[in-house]
Write a structure and sequence with these properties.
The protein is mainly α and 103 residues long. The protein is built from 4 helices and no strands.
Length: 103
């Protein structure tokens, strides 16, 4: 199942402003951390921009996440989390069956 339905905390919600800013900031942070190259990063940032605008944020990059997270990604000791693609049941069963033959 897709993990992102394109819905985040709406800009017009009654949550504290800082909470809304952190939600958007964390989307940018995740996009930066999982992007493997410049093109992928630009694509990820465009997706987050659209998601934020669609949820009522007029200027989502003003929260500064794209600047602060880049510093962290330059750190040689920092490692991005491993993100694996979704596998269908058919693919999962094929892998499982293959693994059983190796035993």
């Amino acid at each position: 199942k897709p993990q992102n339905k394109g819905i985040i905390l709406n800009a017009r919600s009654h949550h504290p402003e800082q909470t809304k800013q952190e939600v958007v900031k964390n989307f940018y942070k995740t996009a930066i951390e999982v992007s493997s190259g410049k093109e992928e990063l630009q694509h990820s940032l465009k997706i987050v921009d659209k998601l934020a605008v669609d949820n009522g944020y007029k200027n989502p990059r003003k929260f500064g996440a794209h600047r602060s997270s880049k510093k962290r990604s330059r750190d040689k000791t920092y490692k991005a989390p491993l993100v694996l693609p979704h596998l269908s049941e058919v693919a999962n069963n094929s892998i499982r069956n293959f693994a059983r033959t190796l035993r």
